[in-house]
Write a structure and sequence with these properties.
- This protein has a 5-stranded mixed β-sheet. Strands 8-7-6-9-10 form a 5-stranded mixed β-sheet, sandwiched between helices.
- Helix 6 crosses helix 7 and helix 7 packs across helix 8 (231-242).
- It has helices at residues 42-53, 76-86, 98-107, 148-158, 170-174, 177-185, 189-212, 231-242, 257-262, and strands at 7-12, 16-22, 28-35, 65-70, 92-97, 112-117, 121-126, 132-136, 218-224, 247-250.
- Strand 2 (16-22) and strand 3 form a beta hairpin.
- It has 2 domains: 7-102 and 256-266, ATPase, nucleotide binding domain (Nucleotidyltransferase, domain 5, 2-Layer Sandwich), CATH 3.30.420.40; 108-250, 2-Layer Sandwich (Nucleotidyltransferase, domain 5), CATH 3.30.420.
- The protein has 9 helices and 10 strands.
- The chain is of the alpha/beta class and 272 residues long.
Length: 272
């Protein structure tokens, strides 16, 4: 008989949604990765998933906690709207931003900066007093420099659409990034230039946060997102950080954001 699901952590990004369900001792019970639904479709997607898991079917007790870390959620109004939409799925529902979830996966508490580069890009940091700041994360129209979308968009612009994407949505444009990283690895000059610029943009986000949070000495730093999950791309990003003049202590996250927020009810997240 499967263990009862005590808590569910949900990491909703621009391309993927990842779920981690744990029992009361924090041990994994279920997990899932799937294409990301819209906010509107999220409640239905989760209901369907929970039914498939059976442990969370309507005939059995709901999980005690559900914690959602979602893209594009910053204001109390946005959090409350999503929390109300999900309130029937668990006894307690909490909504935070996906970048806060990534920060929590890396640090849990204390000071530190996390840089995320996937479909979009953003950096989030806290100082030792729990004061938080963000840099970037303005979306594809206003920014997202250093993201997979930015790499794809810049490549299309510089090649005049050589790798034309029919109906170039954000997701389809971002999907060009792995191809461009491969070209850079093979020595393509334009691809190398674009990738290098992306790495420097991300390093600039980290340095901006360190300055605004007045973090000095050795600054704890971690990362998340599909681009920074690529070892070669990450190495270039870390090189750009070392050349920035600030001292960062880079450490891989100890768990995924979904795993971290599934365990979030066990210890409080510092307030922003």
């Amino acid at each position: 008989m499967a263990a009862h699901i005590h808590s569910v952590g949900i990491d909703l990004g621009g391309t993927w949604i990842r779920l981690e369900a744990v029992d009361a001792q924090g041990r994994r019970v279920r997990s899932l990765k799937a294409p990301a639904p819209s906010w509107k479709d999220l409640p239905g997607f989760l209901k369907q998933t929970f039914r498939a898991w059976k442990a969370c079917s309507p005939r059995r007790a709901r999980p005690r906690h559900l914690v959602l870390g979602s893209r594009g959620v910053w204001t109390p109004q946005e959090r409350n709207r999503l929390r109300r939409a999900l309130r029937k799925l668990a006894q307690n529902v909490r909504v935070i931003s996906d970048v806060e979830a990534a920060w929590h996966a890396a640090f849990k508490s204390g000071a530190g900066i996390v840089v995320i580069s996937g479909t979009g890009s953003i950096a989030f940091g806290r100082d030792g007093r729990g004061r938080s700041q963000r840099a970037g994360g303005w979306g594809p129209l206003l920014g997202d420099e250093g993201s997979a979308f930015w790499i794809g968009k810049t490549w299309l612009h510089r090649t005049r659409g050589h790798d034309f994407v029919p109906r170039p949505s954000v997701r389809r444009t971002a999907a060009l990034a792995p191809h461009i990283l491969r070209l850079a690895h093979e020595g393509n000059r334009l691809a190398k230039e674009i990738v290098r610029d992306a790495q420097h943009h991300l390093a600039d986000l980290a340095c901006s946060l360190a300055r605004r949070l007045r973090l000095k000495k050795l600054i704890p730093l971690s990362w998340a997102g599909s681009l920074l999950g690529n070892p070669g791309f990450r190495a270039g990003f870390l090189t750009a950080l070392r050349r920035s003049g600030r001292r960062f202590q880079a450490t891989a996250p100890g768990m995924t954001p979904a795993q971290a927020i599934a365990k979030l009810p066990s210890f409080p997240l510092p307030r922003g």
